[in-house]
Structures are given as structure tokens and as C-alpha cells.
Design a protein that fits this description.
- Helices cover about 30% and strands about 40% of the residues.
- It has about 150 residues and is of the alpha+beta class.
- The chain has a seven-stranded mixed sheet with strand order 1-2-3-4-5-7-6, sandwiched between helices.
- β2 and β3 form a beta hairpin.
- The longest helix is centred in the middle third of the chain and has 15 residues.
Amino acid sequence: MGKIIIRPMSNADLGDVIRLENASFAAPWKLEHFLHELYNSAISFLYVADLDSIIAGYMGIWILPEEMHITNIAVSAAHRRKGIAQSLLDQAIALSREKKCREISLEVREGNIGARALYLKNGFEIMGRRKKYYQPENEDALILTKKIVGDL
């Protein structure tokens, strides 16, 4: 396996990102959503995991006053369990410190055991639940947060 490069998403990445999004989520974001986040949002940061010129994963982040919210992390099925999600999460944590965020929050499917393990290993704690958040499956989301204050 080559080196994982985490870099800002560009317009040229959108075709690969949309394919990955459609393969990863039952209710995927559309191209317009990504374009809005990429070009129109002052709070949005998008990154891709580039593995030998293949977009193996991506992540969306919102930076709010003193808070980061991870909107999405997705890794292609062919590249899972290779440290890509960890590399994306490391980028988010580093950016949260740079932007002086006090905490990072995200939602994760209750049944996504692999993602939950990754987040818990990285110091996230389960803080709540959103009932039937993921549609059309009616699956609950767990709300996870990681405090950054002591790390600044």
C-alpha cells in the first residue's frame, strides 16, 4: 500500500467522491451539496484521502465558534481497515486544535461497530442519541463528542 495523503478536496475530486458517497450511504448527498460545501460555506472544510492517486476516502467538517462537527467520513469498501479513516480523523483533530475548538461532535449509526470503535479509541464519548436519524432504515444515531480543551 502506498502513502495516504490527506488533502483539501478539489472540484476535480467530486466525481470520485460522489461515487464513494453513493456506495457508502442509503441517503447520499448530491453533487449540489458538495458544491455548496466546497465553494459557498465559510464554515465548511472538505478533505480527501488520496492513496496512489485514488480517492480512497473523504471527510466533511464544519467549524462553528469553538466547536467542530464532522459531517461525514467515508472510506471505500476496497480500502477499509488500512488506516484511512484514522488518517482522516487525525486531520480533523489537528484542525480542531488549530482552530481552537473546545470539542468535536459527530453522529454515527448505532450499528456501525467499526466506526464506533474508531471514535471511542480516539477519545470520543457517547453523549446522546437521535432516534430514527438515519433514513430510510429508521436507525438511531449516537451522538459522540471529544473534548479538546485540555489538549490545547
